[in-house]
Amino acid sequence: MELVRIINSSDEMVLFGESIGRYLKENMVILMEGDLGAGKTTLTKGIAKALGVNRVVNSPTFTILKIYEGNLTLYHMDVYRLNNDSGDEYLEEYFEAGGVTVIEWAHQVSAILPKNFILITISYIDSSTRKITLEVDESIKGNSEYLELLSEVAK
Asked: What is the pTM of this model?
């Protein structure tokens, strides 16, 4: 199942992130892909807001992981500098730690990713406009909560 949205500003990106965040549940994983500066962290800011995070959310590029407490804990990862041979398997523990995990540049650590997730791809249209594609593999058992999320966000 796939949902496509056109976003016209960073404010709109945050609002869309909030609409996604409202439907997230414990142990859900969001994989994010997109070019540098496409809006992955901006979308995560909206997700964090919906989860009740009151701190400033910024990219964990140099720390790999930032943890934000809210109604649900947000585990925000930026794995741009990692790869499948980096020895960072410890990151897997956060996938089932009772919070929500957002992984920017997820393809970099494909070997440790869980089988259940939602994939969000952000593509440039122009300097302020982005195409956002949300995808859930309907054939994978256990993805029903992600399919429900997509249905709710599509409304």
From this structure: 0.94
131: helix, coil or strand? strand
Residue type, 131: K
Beta-bridged to residue 32, according to DSSP, are 104, 120
Domain assignment of residue 62, given as a range: 2-154
Q: How far apart are CA 140 and CA 95, in angstroms?
A: 17
Q: Are residues 48 and 38 in contact, defined by beta-carbon separation less than 8 angstroms?
A: no
Give the total number of structural domains in the chain.
1
* Token reading at 109: 């650590």
pLDDT, tens digit, for every residue of 17-56? 999 999 999 999 999 999 999 999 999 999 999 999 999 9
Q: Residue 60, SS3?
A: coil
Residue from 93, 77, 71 nearest 24 by CA: 71
CATH of the domain at 28: 3.40.50.300
